[in-house]
Amino acid sequence: MSNVIHASHLTLSYDNGKKEIIKNANFRIQKGDFVFITGPSGSGKSTLLKALYGQLKASEGSLVLGGLDLSTISTGKLQELRTHIGIIFQDYKLINEWNVAKNVVLPLMIAGYSTEIQEVQAKRLLKHVKLTDYGERFPLELSGGEQQRVGVARALAKNPVVILADEPTGNLDEYSSNVIWDLMENACQQLNTTVLVVTHKIPTIFSLPYRHFTIESKGIYEVH
Amino acid sequence: MKSIKNHLMFILPLMAILLGIEFFLVFDRTTDRYEKSLKEGYSMLVVAKKPMKLSTFKKLNNHIKISQPIKRKAIISKVIKDIGESSKDEILDALPYFYTLKLDSYLDTRELNNIKKDIEAYENVKKVETFGESYNDSYRLFSFIQFILEVFIIFIAVVSLLLIIKQMEIWKYAHKERMQIMEIFGAPLMLRSGVLFKIALIDAIFSTIFVSALFLYIKFNWAKDSGINIIIQNKEELFMITDIAILLFSALVIVVVSVYSVVFTTNGIDE
Questions:
Q1: A172 CA to chain B: closest CA distance, Å?
Q2: Which one of A79, A81, A95 has the shortest CB-CB distance to B181?
Q3: What are B191-235's pLDDT values in tens digits?
Q4: Which end of chain A is more exposed for a tag (fewer CB within 10 A), N or C?
Q5: How far is residue A151's CA from residue A127's CA, in Å, rounded to a whole number?
Q6: Do the domain assignments include residue B271?
Q7: In terms of pLDDT, which residue wins out, A204 or A219?
Q8: Mutate to test the interface with B, among A78, A102, A106, A108 (most CBs of B within 10 A)
Q9: Do B104 and B79 belong to one domain?
Q10: B165 and B207 assigned to the same domain
């Protein structure tokens, strides 16, 4: 199986290496894997995710995503790579002045798809996340669960190679959380998308086979 | 309403800068023309013992541009009427040579005195007389007004730039999150800052139109009724078609710099 993500002797730090968060980590994630990364607060889960979408560069070692080394990648290549990554944030990060439909097709807009294709895809994606009639509404008119479904629809818009999710159900009730896990399971199962989720707790209702990494004492270890 | 206010907060300081630029252009042109007329009105009369060439004058002082000899026979012909034809050659021999000198630019009193001294120091020159000193006071007043105006324009431009920077901070706050989210999803710089450029370009065009319209009104309506001679005489200098290009270019430069200052300080996503 091909590696979608490959970390080799990866060290991540802030303040020019003064504050080490992750040290000498090694792991490989294959296409179609569903991966949970757990660990205590402040252990470096979100830092790892930041590194995976190119917001933080490795201070040592390498982190390769989709064949591109993120520690040496150029700005242009990083922009291109980001169009193949779907990202889901705990606080949704929707654009509040845009309506739901426009938020959902943001990755298509960036990729230069025509308005007609964007409209068709917005309808399909909103139907997929069960928000068919919500296209014209604005994010602040929706509940937290609905906003996160918009976030998931946006992450799926361009059939990404990998979905990175940072505590996607952290702010949601049980029902909304289950809907989100369902959607992510479907993406992994039906589209063979690699999904990497940073979370405090693995959901009990999860039915797919998954891999589980934990971050402890600056190291990343596979536990399941 | 909020949107109009946002536009005005950018358009007004931008207009202040453009007004400053246009005032500077108008005053510069008017001063240029005024200096030209002063230069043309100013002349020196040199009385020399022997004939002198322009090159000799230029060697004495390189500000001398033209030397025109005054025909001695013409002077004599007036004198002859009273004295008689018989003494003509005698008078012609005794008469010195007269030259009118023109300068290459309008110079201040100190420099004019230096030229006079340089010419007088030449052994062949008997006397140097200057004409046009009555222009001196008005020229000084004109230069003083120009200096005051330039200081005022610089002051207004600095204050306006500070207001624009302040407005940029508001824009930065208003658009920061959207631009950061777009960046995370791989949007190139031009796409994520597209809205800002659009707003700023519209404001730049409006500012240019407002300032141009104001000066066109001054030129075609207000100037002729103003009763101010210098404005009526220099009406054409009040606004030129090339000024639109200068104003638009200046506005666009300010806009591009302002927008990029917002775009480059909103990289990365906030926690």
A1: 19
A2: A95
A3: 888 888 888 899 999 999 999 999 999 888 888 787 777 777 777
A4: N
A5: 14
A6: no
A7: A219
A8: A106
A9: yes
A10: yes
B270 assigned to some structural domain: no
Which of these three, B72, B95, B130, is where a domain ends? B130
Q: Which two tokens stand for residue B247?
A: 């104003």
pLDDT-derived band of residue B115, with 50, 70 and 90 as boundaries? confident
pLDDT digits (tens, 9 = 90+) for A109-168: 999 999 999 999 999 999 989 899 999 999 999 999 999 999 999 999 999 999 999 999
The verdict on A87 touching B (C-beta cutoff 8 Å) is yes
- Res B133 pLDDT > 70: no
A86-116: pLDDT as tens digits: 999 999 999 999 999 999 999 999 999 999 9
ipTM, 2 dp: 0.90
Residue A170 phi, psi dihedral angles, 5° rounding: -55, -30
B32 and B50 assigned to the same domain = no
- What is the domain count for chain B? 2
Its domain, for residue B217, covers 2-37+137-265
Q: Per mean pLDDT, which of B237-241, B248-252, B266-270 is the most reliable?
A: B248-252
**Residues within 8 A of A (CB atoms), B 147-186 only:** 177-178, 181-182, 184-186
Residue B74's domain is classified under what CATH number?
3.30.70
pLDDT value, residue B1 = 63
Place of tokens 């090694």: A26
In a mutagenesis test of the A interface, which of B185, B193, B199 is the best target, namely the one with the most A β-carbons within 10 Å?
B185
- Rounded CA Rg of chain B: 30
Does residue B181 lie in a domain region?
Answer: yes
Half-sphere exposure of B239 (CA within 13 A, CB side): 21
CA–CA distances in Å: residue B227 to residues A67, A110, B27, B233: 78, 60, 18, 10
Q: Are residues B269 and A93, on separate chains, in Cβ contact within 8 Å?
A: yes
Compute the radius of gyration of chain A from its Cα atoms.
Answer: 17
Boundary-marking domain end, from B74, B108, B130:
B130
Cα separation of A120 and A143, whole Å?
Answer: 24
Residues in chain A with CB shorter than 8 Å from the CB of B191 are 109-110
